[in-house]
Amino acid sequence: MNNSALSRHGLDRRRAQLRELQRYLQAQEQEFFELHGHLRAFVDRYVATLGSSYLELDALESQLHTATQYLAEALRRNGISARTPRAPQATALPTIPFLPTAPPLPAEPAAGVIDLPPPSLKTLYRRAAMRLHPDFADNENERQRREQAMMLVNEAYASENRTRLEALLLAAGEDPLKVTGGNADALHEWLSRCENSVQGRLRVVQAHRVALEAHPMHQLWLAISRAEKLGLDPFQVMVQRLRSQIAERRQELYIGQRLQPEPGLAEDFLRRRIERMGASLGVDSA
């Protein structure tokens, strides 16, 4: 009896399930893109408000490091043991990850009920050889890959393992209709591949959603949004703190560029700088 006719109801049900899964994936992607858009707007606002101050602070830190290097070298030339402070790390302006583009679904087999008998094992072997033979390789890496694949094909053919041979052909991109015969089996295989593809994409979207919600900028966005709803201005507080740090670094740079390489003040200045740079990196300065 024709397997395609028997499977018609099952195929229709699987198609409906696939469409429902695709709609769910589309909703999940839409939620991700909406969240990503909100966070992207917040990051742009963050950079526009604080970016120039961070750049100015980084420039001062770099100048201060150069001054302390000169001072430490001069102290050592005078016979005084002096360590050079750690180099400052430039402030990394925030970035947020993008969702990679989804791969296309496998092409659907020919429409309609097609009654094709399954090809013989020898036919399958010949098709596998046409697709995977090393002589068709474009480069050495491709040749090695094909040699490995043909070893598996030869083993499957020698052991008359039709299931394994079919799987190798499908993995190589062969049309399922030409591998398993009748259209129903080919459609079942296509639906399975589509379902796996959509489910894989769904896992990728959900993983990126979790990563986005765990991103430090997402946490900051939520905190600032809550504060602004209470009438507070967190960004202004952050700007003031940065301006205060900039003023401190300017004063420190002014002193560092004018200190003489002598015991006492110069050594104390370097010690404080080393302690601060160690603290800023979260390490022991000793």
**How much helicity do the residues have?**
over 70%
Name the overall outline. elongated
Largest sheet: none
Poorly predicted runs of 5 or more residues: 1-6, 281-286
Strand composition percent: under 5%
The arrangement of helices and strands along the chain is HHHHHHHHHH
Mean pLDDT: 86
Number of strands: 0
Structural summary, described in words:
- The chain has helices spanning 3-6, 8-77, 121-132, 140-158, 162-171, 176-180, 183-214, 216-229, 234-256, 265-280.
- The chain is mainly alpha-helical and 286 residues long.
- The protein folds into 2 domains: 3-111 and 195-280, no CATH class; 118-180.
- The N and C termini lie far apart (84 Å).
